[in-house]
Amino acid sequence: MRAVIKIGSSLLTTGNSLDESRIGALGTDISEVHSMGNEVIIVSSGAVAAGMKKLGLKRKPSDIRHKQAAASVGQSTLMWAYEKSFSIHGKKVAQILLTRDAFYDRVRYINAKNTILTLLDYNIIPVINENDSVAIDEIKFGDNDQLASLVAGLVDADRLVMLSDVDGLYTRDPRRYKGAGLIPVVEKITPEIEALSGGAGSLVGTGGMYSKVLAAKRAMQCGIRVNIINGKAPGLLMSLFQGNPCGTEFKPREERIPARKGWIAFGLRARSSIMVDNGARDAILSRGKSLLPSGIISVEGSFGAGDAVYCTDRGGNRFAKGLTNYSAEEVGKLKGLRTSEIEK
C-alpha cells in the first residue's frame, strides 16, 4: 500500500517549539507501518514553529516576511528531528520542499512525481513540506492539509492519513461539548458534513477540521481512501494499517480519476470561466465530450491557449474545469459558431 501521512503543527509542537519526544513517538509508529511493507510519504508542518523558538517568537508571525524567516531557520531543525527519530529504526528520510506552482506546470508536476517515486524505490521515506521560505500568497497551498491531498493524488496513493489532535470528525466540537459523538464513516461530503467541521486552527498551525474535510473531499474524488485519526494515541496508526477501524474514514469514489484528469481538476488553478448552454453542459457531464464553440455563451476573464478555465452554466455555477485550445479573445470570436463555420 502507498500511503501519505500528514502531520500537523499541533502534533509536532509544544508551546512555540518542537516536541522532540512526540516526533520520536511518531517516528516509531511510522517506522512500524513502513516495516509492514507499505510505501510511506510524510507531509509535515512544523518548520515555522521550529523557527519561532530560535527567533524568540511567542506567537506565529502574521506577515509573510517573518514567516519566511522562521521557516528558513526552522526547516533544518525539523528535518534533523525526523532524521534522528527514524534512523533509530534503520529508516532513511529525504526532504522535498514544494510550492503550489510546482503543480501548475505539467513538466514540473511529472518531475516532482518521479522524484518521490524514485525515493520510494530506494526504500526511503520522503518528508514533504511547503517551501515557506520562498512561498508567497500567489503560490501557497493555504495549509498542509491541501498539500497532502495534492501529493496523494500526485503519487497515486491508496490512502491518505491525516493525524490530528482529536479522534476524528465529531457531530460537535468535542473540546467544547462533552456529548459530541465521533462519526466513524463518511460516505459523501455534503454541505452538512462541511458545516460540522467548521472551526479555527491553533496558534501555530493554519488548518483545522474544516481544512481536513476539504482535503478529504479532494482525495475521495481521486479514488483515495482517507482517515482522520488521533496522532497522539499510541499504536493507533499501526492498528489502522492492520485493518482496524480508527477515527473517521472517508470512503473514496469507486473509480479512480485518470492521472492527467486529476492534475487538471485539482493541480491546476483556473482564474477565468466560459459560460455554456444546457446542451453543452449535458454533453460534458453525461458523455464526457469536449466543449465546442457552438455551445459557448460568453467568456469571463482573460486567459491564453493552454490555460485552465472553469465551465459554468447559465446561472454561473461551476460544473467542470478543462484546458482551452484558444485564448479568451479567440473564444469570444468563435462562440456560437459550428465547427464547419470555423473551418471556413
From TrEMBL:
Its EC number is 2.7.2.11. One of its GO terms (cellular component) is cytosol. One of its GO terms (molecular function) is ATP binding. GO terms for biological process: amino acid biosynthetic process. Gene3D superfamilies: Acetylglutamate kinase-like, PUA domain. Keywords: Amino-acid biosynthesis, ATP-binding, Cytoplasm, Kinase, Nucleotide-binding, Proline biosynthesis, Transferase. The keyword Amino-acid biosynthesis applies. InterPro entries: AceGlu_kinase-like_sf (IPR036393), Asp/Glu/Uridylate_kinase (IPR001048), G5K_ProB (IPR041739), Glu/AcGlu_kinase (IPR001057), Glu_5kinase (IPR011529), Glu_5kinase/COase_Synthase (IPR005715), Glutamate_5-kinase_CS (IPR019797), PUA (IPR002478). Residues 272-343 form the PUA domain. HAMAP family: ProB. NCBIfam families: proB. This is Glutamate 5-kinase / RNA-binding C-terminal domain PUA. The lineage of its organism: unclassified sequences, metagenomes, ecological metagenomes.
